[in-house]
Design a protein that fits this description.
The protein has 166 residues and is α+β, with helices and mostly antiparallel strands. Helix content is 39%, strand content 19%. It starts with a helix and ends in a 7-residue tail after the last strand.
């Protein structure tokens, strides 16, 4: 069992919803695991599959989400919150990043493919959308820091609050 699958079980118990029904199928998992790594990571791990096997994706949602956005067409990078992760590694306040299209959220930490309406129901809160070109050139800190909002301008980075729990 991968560390993400163990964490998914813990989060499922925490929020009272069985998230395994939204787990990546084998085809999506194979597609994600086949994404090539950048040269900086190649000396440390051999593949994105190893990143998941060693649990290195947990706590590095911005980085793994960016890999997916850059390698799977039609995805945009988002940053926001998911209260189910509050208190976990690198997410003490529930901060989280994921990729999405107009129908689904693809969560790289929990290995989930969630319909957007389900994401709304379980507490994903969208705060920032990072456009493809910005995600390719900015560091993870720059992507998620409010300091860079003025640098990027409204056309590159904007706040979007769509999925708050009522």
């Amino acid at each position: 069992m991968l560390p993400s699958e163990r964490l998914r079980m813990i989060i499922s118990a925490r929020i009272g919803i069985d998230l395994s029904m939204f787990a990546w199928d084998s085809k999506l998992q194979e597609k994600v695991f086949s994404i090539p790594l950048c040269q900086e990571l190649e000396n440390k791990v051999f593949s994105l599959k190893e990143v998941y096997e060693f649990g290195l994706n947990i706590g590095h949602c911005g980085l793994t989400s960016r890999y997916l956005m850059r390698n799977i067409n039609g995805l945009e990078l988002y940053y926001g919150n998911f209260y189910g992760l509050k208190g976990t590694k690198n997410s003490q306040n529930g901060n989280h990043a994921w990729v999405a299209n107009d129908k689904f959220i693809l969560d790289t930490t929990l290995m989930l493919l969630l319909p957007i309406n389900v994401a709304k129901e379980i507490g994903y809160i969208f705060e920032k959308k990072i456009y493809h070109e910005s995600a390719k050139i900015l560091s993870e800190y720059e992507l998620f820091s409010n300091e860079y909002q003025s640098f990027l301008g409204n056309s590159e980075l904007y706040y979007i609050t769509l999925f708050q729990i009522d």
